[in-house]
């Protein structure tokens, strides 16, 4: 399993990708989990239905990948947790606050890097307070 980080400064990126990267002082604007079978999972304001599984054809130059150090059992636990998150709504305010010193957890909404930071923390990764992680900060923590 791996995480895919969307590059904010490439031809397919939107103005919003660039704003996210600028505000978080980075080059990444989004993160998706990619399971070994090629199915992706995340939450994005572009997907109005909330958190979802999806097949994404990664365009060359648009994504940076990090291989996760997980065994097949951990990957299956993550998939099960993702199934429970289907439909979770995107938390715009939380995403904005992740670029500030403020940190507030919402009980029913999440943003992409918060979701993946919390999921990985549950699998033993050294992550504290997932709502403080922008895509760039999560990437930096994992490399």
What does this structure look like?
The protein is α+β, with helices and mostly antiparallel strands. It has one domain. 34% of the residues lie in helices and 20% in strands. It contains five helices and seven strands. The strands form two sheets. The protein has a five-stranded antiparallel β-sheet with strand order 4-3-2-1-5. A two-stranded parallel ribbon has the order 6-7. β2 and β3 form a beta hairpin. The model has no long low-confidence stretch (mean pLDDT 90).
Short description:
This protein has 143 residues and is an alpha+beta fold. It has helices spanning 15-23, 72-85, 92-97, 112-122, 135-142, and strands spanning 2-7, 28-34, 40-42, 52-54, 63-67, 89-90, 109-110.
Set down the secondary structure blueprint:
Blueprint: E1 2-7, H1 15-23, E2 28-34, E3 40-42, E4 52-54, E5 63-67, H2 72-85, E6 89-90, H3 92-97, E7 109-110, H4 112-122, H5 135-142
Parallel strand pairs: 6-7
Antiparallel strand pairs: 1-2, 1-5, 2-3, 3-4
Can you count the beta strands? 7
Q: Quick check: average pLDDT?
A: 90
Question: What is the succession of H and E elements?
Answer: EHEEEEHEHEHH
Distance between the termini: 15 Å
Number of helical regions: 5
What gyration radius follows from the Cα positions, in whole Å?
Answer: 14 Å
- How many domains in all? 1
Tell me roughly what share of residues is in helical segments: 25-40%
Side by side, the strands of the main sheet go 4-3-2-1-5
Percent of residues in β-strands: 15-25%
Largest sheet: 5 strands, antiparallel
């Amino acid at each position: 399993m791996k995480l895919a980080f969307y590059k904010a400064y490439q031809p397919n990126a939107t103005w919003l990708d660039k704003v996210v990267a600028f505000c978080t002082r980075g080059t990444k604007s989004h993160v998706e989990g990619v399971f070994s079978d090629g199915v992706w999972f995340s939450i994005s304001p572009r997907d109005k239905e909330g958190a979802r599984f999806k097949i994404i054809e990664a365009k060359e130059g648009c994504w940076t990948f990090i291989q996760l150090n997980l065994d097949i059992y951990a990957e299956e636990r993550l998939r099960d947790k993702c199934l429970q998150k289907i439909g979770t709504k995107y938390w715009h305010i939380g995403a904005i606050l992740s670029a500030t010193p403020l940190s507030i957890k919402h009980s029913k909404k999440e943003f992409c890097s918060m979701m993946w930071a919390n999921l990985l923390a549950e699998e033993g990764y050294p992550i504290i307070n997932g709502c403080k992680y922008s895509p760039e900060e999560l990437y930096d923590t994992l490399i």
